[in-house]
């Protein structure tokens, strides 16, 4: 276990390196921080931190930089989440408040996160499997053709065309719409099949085949699409950190193009808490020089998806964690109110 003083030295090294981009020496530490000890003591503390693998000497420079292990300890023990200023919070509210639908919410969130953190922003669309039904709409397109519209509590809208086996009157359609909504609104998708299984039997014989066809289409719509949807933005921000990537930025850019990689990075949506993966904690080799900060968001207590940022390990962790958490809260509020 490191002493409190050595933890303070590590905190100072991380803060200085993130701020200056230069390896940090003992003289600079004692000048910039009130550590209450001599430069010789700080040098001794730095030697212990280096032996323990928390800092390293990048080249012949006298200074040291944090390692992945050092950043990990900083995030776990030393970094509080930096609260956003009132103007920043107001800017988030104003920017997200004008969104007109789910695609707009996700698009605005990506742009906002990228601007606030100056990193790459990744936002996962809300998952159908973790949503509830807000409304089912049926629209007549022709005597034997309908449009089924499913609206979720997260604002997601799914539309399907239904070719009916026989003409379906407006009266019957209105009846089906009313009965369907009375059973499924506010219910989880997983519960819907059982809630509607006996519905056809409550209709006249000539309408039962059409009702069954509409229900079959609804149940198909409820099945989660195999490919989760993501939106990514701010990739150009990485070019500002060229020297943070040892050889080339290309492996990072290639990894960011793979949706499966990004979904794994964000983690399971049901994990709503803040997750910070640093350097080699990221399983994908191309992202070993990056850190990922992610958190769940949703319209209630349970997360329906994740959002986060990807940037170099030399990251302002308190500020990034604060921005990611604040944006996730606002998105959750918008989904709850929409």
List the helices and strands and how they pair.
Blueprint: H1 4-20, H2 26-32, H3 39-51, E1 55-56, E2 65-66, H4 68-78, H5 86-97, H6 102-117, E3 120-124, E4 133-142, E5 145-152, E6 157-163, H7 170-184, H8 192-196, H9 205-222, E7 230-233, H10 250-256, H11 259-266, E8 275-278, E9 290-297, E10 305-312, H12 317-337
Antiparallel strand pairs: 1-2, 3-7, 3-10, 4-5, 5-6, 8-9, 9-10
Summarize the structure.
The chain has 338 residues and is α+β, with helices and mostly antiparallel strands. The chain has helices at 4-20, 26-32, 39-51, 68-78, 86-97, 102-117, 170-184, 192-196, 205-222, 250-256, 259-266, 317-337, and strands spanning 55-56, 65-66, 120-124, 133-142, 145-152, 157-163, 230-233, 275-278, 290-297, 305-312. The strands form 3 sheets. It has a 5-stranded antiparallel β-sheet with strand order 7-3-10-9-8, with helices on both faces. Strands 4-5-6 form a 3-stranded antiparallel β-sheet. A two-stranded antiparallel sheet has the order 1-2.
| Strand adjacency order, main sheet | 7-3-10-9-8
What is the 3D shape? elongated
Query: Which value, in Å, is the CA radius of gyration?
Result: 26 Å
Distance between the termini: 49 Å
Subunit organisation of the chains: single chain
Number of strands: 10
Helix count from the secondary structure assignment: 12
Any low-confidence stretches, pLDDT <50, length ≥5? none
Q: Can you tell me about this structure?
A:
This protein is of the alpha+beta class and 338 residues long. Helix content is 44%, strand content 17%. Strands 7-3-10-9-8 form a five-stranded antiparallel sheet, sandwiched between helices. A three-stranded antiparallel sheet has the order 4-5-6. Helix 5 runs parallel beside helix 12. The longest helix has 21 residues, at 317-337. It is elongated.
């Amino acid at each position: 276990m490191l002493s409190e003083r050595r933890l303070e030295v590590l905190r100072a090294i991380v803060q200085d390196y993130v701020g200056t981009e230069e390896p940090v020496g003992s003289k600079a530490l004692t000048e910039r921080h009130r550590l209450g000890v001599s430069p010789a003591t700080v040098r001794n503390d730095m030697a212990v931190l280096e032996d323990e693998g928390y800092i390293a000497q990048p080249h012949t420079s006298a200074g040291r930089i944090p390692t992945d292990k050092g950043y990990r300890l900083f995030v776990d023990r030393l970094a509080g989440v930096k609260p956003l200023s009132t103007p920043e919070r107001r800017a988030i509210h104003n920017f997200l408040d004008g969104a007109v639908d789910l695609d707009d919410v996700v698009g605005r969130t990506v742009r906002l996160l990228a601007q606030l953190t100056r990193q790459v922003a990744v936002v996962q669309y809300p998952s159908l499997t973790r949503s509830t039904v807000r409304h089912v709409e049926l629209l007549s397109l022709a005597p034997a053709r309908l449009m089924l519209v499913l609206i979720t509590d997260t604002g997601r809208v799914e539309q399907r065309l239904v070719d009916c086996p026989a003409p379906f009157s407006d009266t019957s359609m209105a009846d089906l719409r009313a009965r369907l909504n009375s059973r499924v609104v506010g219910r989880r998708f997983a519960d819907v099949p059982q809630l509607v299984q006996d519905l056809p039997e409550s209709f006249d014989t000539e309408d039962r085949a059409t009702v069954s066809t509409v229900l079959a289409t609804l149940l198909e719509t409820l099945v989660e699409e195999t490919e989760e949807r993501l939106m990514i933005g701010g990739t150009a921000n990485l070019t500002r950190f060229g020297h943070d990537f040892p050889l080339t930025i290309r492996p990072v850019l290639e990894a960011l193009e793979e949706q499966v990689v990004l979904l794994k990075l964000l983690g399971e949506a049901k994990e709503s808490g803040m997750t910070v993966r640093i350097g080699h904690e990221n399983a994908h080799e191309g992202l070993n020089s990056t850190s990922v900060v992610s958190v769940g968001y949703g319209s209630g207590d349970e997360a329906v998806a994740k959002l986060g940022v990807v940037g170099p390990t030399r990251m302002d962790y308190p500020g990034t964690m604060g921005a990611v958490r604040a944006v996730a809260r606002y998105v959750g509020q918008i989904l709850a109110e929409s």
